[in-house]
Amino acid sequence: MDFRNHPIIEGLRINEDGTEIFYNDVLLRAFKNDETRENPTLKVNFLNKAHSVTKLVCEAWNGLSAHSAQRASKIILTAGNHYSNLEWKEGAANGVGNFKQKIKIEDYDDILELKKNKKTCVEIAKMYDVNQSTIARIINRYVEKDK
Asked: Which Gene3D superfamilies does the record associate with it (predicted)?
């Protein structure tokens, strides 16, 4: 089986399906991260951190992700970590989706002004397409409380 060096992590060599990963010529032992899930994530420990086998294989064999919002993903969930079954996808690493900040720090003054003008958290939340708890959190954090 062929090996490739990781493009960033010096001393890391990975075979084409992630069953053998060497760091500084020491074979790393893969472990299942969360066995309660239907398809638990395989991880290896080195440099004081657990690293996803899927991500390491994808980086070494398919190249680095184009940007940080991408995650390494299996094309067929049950087919394993062979590089031909891996791709970069948009979205969070947990597979739920890509969470982008909808409210920017520049919007906070406008939100606080709307609240001063007697708009409810629900009304403001609809304007920004966010949950009302997000608006309440901003208001509670940035409005000085009366003593």
From this structure: Winged helix-like DNA-binding domain superfamily/Winged helix DNA-binding domain (1.10.10.10)
User: What pLDDT sits at residue 101?
Assistant: 63
Tell me the pTM. 0.63
Angle subtended at Cα 40 by Cα 38 and Cα 46, rounded to the nearest 5 degrees: 175
In contact, 13 and 4? CB cutoff 8 Å = yes
**Mean pLDDT across the chain, nearest whole number?**
87
Count, residues in the chain: 147
Q: How far apart are CA 19 and CA 84, in angstroms?
A: 14
> Does CATH number 3.90.75.20 belong to domain 3-90?
yes
